[in-house]
Amino acid sequence: MNPTKTEPEGGPSRRMLVAVVVLAAVATVAVTALLINVFERKQEAKNPFYRVVELNDTIDDPATWAKNFPLQYDMYTKTVDMQRTKYGGSEAMPHSPTDADPRSVVARSKLQEDPRLKTIWAGYAFSADYRERRGHAYMLEDQTFTERQKFNPPAMCINCHASMVTTFLKLGDGDIMKGFNTISDTHMTYKQIRETVKHPVACIDCHDPENMQLRITRPAFIEGIRALKGSQGVQNYDVNTMATRQEMRSYVCGQCHVTYYFAPPNKRLTFPWAKGLKVEDIIAVEDQAKLVEWTHLDSGAGLIKPRHPEFEMWNQGVHARSGVACADCHMPYTRQGGLKISDHQINSPILKINRSCQTCHHFPEEELKAKVEDIQDRFFNLRNTALDALVDLIYDIKAEKAKGATEAQLSAARDHQRKGQFMIDFVMSENSMGFHAPQEATRILGEAINFCRLGQLSLHGGPLPSHNPPNIVESPGSPGPATAPAKHTMKQGKPTTVAQLGK
Ligand code: HEC
Ligand code: HEC
Ligand code: HEC
Ligand code: HEC
Ligand code: HEC
Questions:
Q1: Ligand 2 centre and the CA of 143: distance in Å?
Q2: How far is the CA of 139 from the centre of ligand 3 (A)?
Q3: Within a domain: 186
């Protein structure tokens, strides 16, 4: 239809009719265009890629997935890059390759940076070798060649350091959970399981090959999050069908960036979330399991070691509460060849503040960076005070034992060491240097310093101080997306005062 071809003559009513017809035509075209646009978008969402190869659950090699998704793959391979920030990122340290350890580059040794760490872990694998984390590309080799291998780690260490889907499916005859159970039930060794894997975490571990939706592939997370939801009154939670897309943008990371333990007798990998995600909830679960991972060489205390609780700590922070996911900061959108894609070079957000933070915070880049470093500096200083307190307690127990302290005194002091150590280590092994939940990290250090003080007091006889300040530390549980109602499970310690926290 051509509007210029309408009759030149005609009364007002005729002209009106023509105008209506023209308008209707324009509207029809506009609506059609919109519908086509919507339809195309839906198709894009359904099939946002050019399918060169058919993918399925037997293909774990990311280089094959790259044929359909070259841009994401390119960024994924860049996780080999090493670049430092003030407290994070990663730094390449030269290493002379040997037969036992052929790596020519390793990450910085945390033990060399802070010798107190050797003291707090005396007698445990971590006192032999503990380094800074680096990019995903290195996860498999760094685990294979760490000196902690001398301590015979369980096979399930591999869960978070390799692409596991094909291995689980093979061992479980097509059933991931069965494959996972087989590894611990048949007491496979690390060496045996290591021979079944080839790649670090790969596309198949986070994505469904049929439609590229995010998915959870780790049984320990499926069980852990079910237990957590159970504690919040949600029964039979099935993460892969019940989680929202925004939740999945954190849950995929929570499969590995969490604390864990190996449950006896088969050393089954377990996420201790049945009472909640706060540090006290986690200690309560591991206490209930009567877990002792090692006996401290100097003090004789039976101890447990937390590991990288990024997911748990993020959950206590303001970002989780505001619905900001791991991927929002660590995998921000980026423009590549006219397309908007997720940044698969997963690393420190400080290296890409414009995309990671400035989408929400309209401050200059330098100011945002200074804000982060300010939080981190404060945390780092208090962490140092806490570490001193813990080392003091350890040497005090050792000295008093030699002088003939009673069993009751020693066991009370060791119990305080166990709690203080776990809490300090919890926030110290968390990899954001306090950033993911600054207030919670500070609260935990304050409580931990108090446990060290109480430990020393119980050695030196005398009644514990009787003053009882108002109970202001009882923290209201943060109503974050996956947080249990606050339950204060550790009753032994006196509440910490504001003055102590603000140190
Ligand atoms: C609001 C943004 C934000 C969110 C959300 C967030 N992080 Fe972070 N993360 C940071 C910042 C900032 C750092 C500190 C980086 C540095 O010091 O270089 C960090 C550090 C880290 C590190 C250490 C990185 C390094 O290079 O040293 C890891 C690992 C990490 N985060 C994982 C996670 C996981 C897993 C989640 C979700 C459970 C998460 N983060 C959620 C901002 C965020
Ligand atoms: C639940 C997942 C998970 C399990 C199980 C796991 N790791 Fe890791 N591992 C991680 C994450 C996440 C990092 C990176 C963060 C960090 O370094 O704190 C890491 C880092 C490492 C590193 C490099 C930094 C360092 O500590 O020197 C080594 C080596 C390592 N793991 C060895 C092991 C060994 C040995 C086991 C078994 C005892 C194990 N991992 C089990 C998730 C896991
Ligand atoms: C299969 C387990 C696994 C999953 C899933 C996983 N990570 Fe990691 N991540 C690791 C391990 C292991 C390391 C340490 C590798 C090393 O040090 O060799 C690591 C390292 C990192 C680092 C440090 C990078 C650097 O350059 O220093 C960041 C940041 C990080 N992960 C964030 C995330 C985020 C965000 C997600 C989710 C989108 C995620 N990870 C998913 C296991 C995992
Ligand atoms: C640690 C988990 C993880 C791994 C490993 C991973 N991805 Fe992703 N990927 C994500 C997340 C998170 C998103 C964002 C999804 C969303 O928002 O729904 C994403 C999004 C995508 C998308 C949708 C478009 C986009 O960029 O947002 C594609 C395609 C994709 N990834 C391809 C790949 C390929 C190819 C690989 C392997 C080379 C890979 N991914 C490895 C976590 C991962
Ligand atoms: C998707 C949006 C979003 C992104 C991305 C984001 N933030 Fe936030 N941030 C928020 C919201 C919402 C709050 C809480 C409300 C407020 O104080 O503005 C917040 C609060 C903060 C606070 C105050 C923390 C506190 O405990 O009160 C700091 C600091 C901060 N963000 C830094 C960052 C940095 C650094 C990054 C990038 C690594 C970042 N944010 C990325 C949304 C975001």
A1: 7
A2: 8
A3: no
Residue range 127-166, pLDDT digits in tens: 999 999 999 999 999 999 999 999 999 999 999 999 999 9
Pocket lining: 355 vs ligand 5, CB cutoff 6 Å: no
Number of the ligand 2 atom closest to the C-alpha atom of 271? 1
Kindly compute the dihedral angle of the four CA atoms of residues 459, 463, 465, 466, in this order, to the nearest 10 degrees.
150
Peptide bond into 265 cis (omega under 30): yes
204 within a domain of the structure (yes/no): no
- Report, as an integer, the average pLDDT of 445-460: 96
Pocket test for ligand 3, best of 346, 347, 352 (most atoms within 8 A of CB): 346
Global pTM reads 0.89
* Cα three-residue angle 307-308-313, rounded to 5 degrees: 120
What CATH number has the domain bearing residue 392? 1.20.140.10
Q: Partners of 106 in the beta sheet?
A: 93
Per the structure, the complete domain to which residue 496 belongs is given by: 365-501
Residue 453 lies in a domain: yes
Residue 328 lies in a domain: no
Least distant ligand from the CA of 152:
2
How many domains is the chain partitioned into structurally? Answer: 2
- Is residue 315 in contact with ligand 1, taking CB distance under 6 Å? no
